[in-house]
Each structure stands twice: as C-alpha cells, then as structure tokens.
Amino acid sequence: xxxxxxxxxxxxxxxxxxxxxxxxxxxxxxxxxxxxxxxxxxxxxxxxxxxxxxxxxxxxxxxxxxxxxxxxxxxxxxxxxxxxxxxxxxxxxxxxxxxxxxxxxxxxxxxxxxxxxxxxxxxxxxxxxxxxxxxxxxxxxxxxxxx
Length: 147
Prior knowledge:
This protein has helices spanning 16-35, 42-54, 59-66, 70-82, 103-127, 129-143, and strands at 56-58, 86-90, 97-101. By secondary structure, it is mostly helical. The chain has a single domain (25-135), classed as Orthogonal Bundle (Arc Repressor Mutant, subunit A).
C-alpha cells in the first residue's frame, strides 16, 4: 500500500469548476501511479472492468454505461485492442460492433484490480472514512447536475 506522507495544501481558485478539475487530475495521477506496474491507466482499468462485468457489450451500450461519449470510448479502446486485451468484433448488424475481454485482458484486470485496491486503501487512509464518505455524497450530488 502506498502511504501518503505529506499534505501539500493548494490555494483554491475562485472558480469551483477549476478546483474540482485540479482535484480530479490529482486523484487520477495518484491512481495511475499506483497502477503503473499493471501497465494500465485508471481509465483503461475502468473500461476493462466494465467489460468484465458485462462480458460483452456494444460500443454504444458501453459508452452509455460508463457515462462517456463514443468518441472517447473509441480512443480509449484502441491501445487496449492493440495490446490484445480486448477483441472488437462485428455486431448483430453492420452498424454495431461488440467488444469483449480476451484472456490476456482478464489477467490484466486481475492485476490492475489488486493495485486499484491498494490505491483505494491509501486514499481512504489519507482522507479518513468520514471525510471520504462526505466527499462521495457531494460528488454524487454534483454528478446529478447532468442526468
């Protein structure tokens, strides 16, 4: 588990959006650093994990489940397909494609998921259970701005 030893308080911006974006980037960089030994980024692990739970999905269905646009999903899938972690096959009609994990992809999820657990524990230790619960409540409230 990665221990966070120091707190580096930053001066907040007068813009709420900028403060949230900076915090989001910091958390993503932290998780990416912990996930580095798996060869996956946080975004890639999230995509693979969604596929693991769905077993197979269409691009549109996966984008909707992950709450990202299809263009972003396509861009994120390319390196995973190139690495042999996912397979992209023709769908039920000519307009759709189905995505599924390969055996290599399933092994990558296992490796990445263990490291993700370490990042989770480290962040919980750093934030404290009460603050983290409040943060998650506030984030859910913000996410509800866009249904």
